[in-house]
């Protein structure tokens, strides 16, 4: 019942076809970078905390060739983006910045060109295609940034430092997409490994692979179809509230605070700031404990933490929405489900559910019966579709494909 994860080959073929049609030749360079699902550790990355994402076999592909001179031509195969789908610009010869503009999708490319660590970037022509759903909370933006960066590395190599690459892509998102995101999405897109989740310490940037090799357990991703956009005011507002809380606590970041510190300082902060900080402090603890449970195959225990995480994101951090809450509740009614939660920034997007392999079809049916009736203005009418099931350790697993 679950759609198979689309093969990278399909997206690659689409990109090659469009490249041949547009430029009349075959691309010389072909790269891709994965989207991600976060298993636990939400809104902790910009608080120097821990996250536990895994790279997906949903990828963004960039195919292209160097072009003599300083002209860049990019074409996207994605039909859902703002028009035009072909953009041309010149790389400034004096090192002046490449300003973001319209259409919005091209800003990710411009941002990465701007922050590329081995300038000057040569001219190029390229086509972009992706199987990561846009605005679905599975890091379509980070996978595009990392794919573009990887493409540039093929044209003009940098020093190959993986963490610096992720940071450059994060910078691109800050300056050219206007989203003050943390480092999780870019780092897992660069470092994710097949059949592993990645425990990332967002302070030291140390990433520890956690093997997922139990064929009886599945990770199911379900799209609420409520499109989220992190460029609104809510994400930056959460970030600001966390900084305020850390400053009241006299800490560099909420990573350094305990629940006791928070209770002691409660009278010195407003109720909303208190709730935001409480989510972050406990979510960091859940992520560290959760990674231990996952390592040992303690799925029941991990599932409970997923549910606590969701409840906290809904009640304390207030980044969930009705559709996500309903999907999670529906999943938890099914026998064989260990846990379920919203994943990613929130305000729409996907849920992630950990369950026994035999329960997958039942869980999907149960969630589809919701026939969500969305009231969100940015919603796509909210019906559940495109569930993606990832057999942990099976054939459909998290995978990273850096360079084809
Ligand atoms: C988005 C951001 F891009 C990440 O950095 C992270 O903060 C996430 O929301 C929430 O955990 O995906």
From TrEMBL:
Species annotation: Merluccius polli (Benguela hake)
Residues of the full protein shown: 1 to 404 of 684
A biological process from GO: protein homooligomerization
UniProt KW keywords: ATP-binding, Carbohydrate metabolism, Growth regulation, Kinase, Magnesium, Metal-binding, Nucleotide-binding, Transferase
UniProt GO molecular function: ATP binding; galactokinase activity; metal ion binding
Record bears the keyword Transcription regulation: no
Any one Gene Ontology cellular component term annotated for this protein: cytosol
Name of the protein in its database record: Galactokinase
Signal peptide coordinates: none
Membership in a protein family: Belongs to the GHMP kinase family. GalK subfamily.
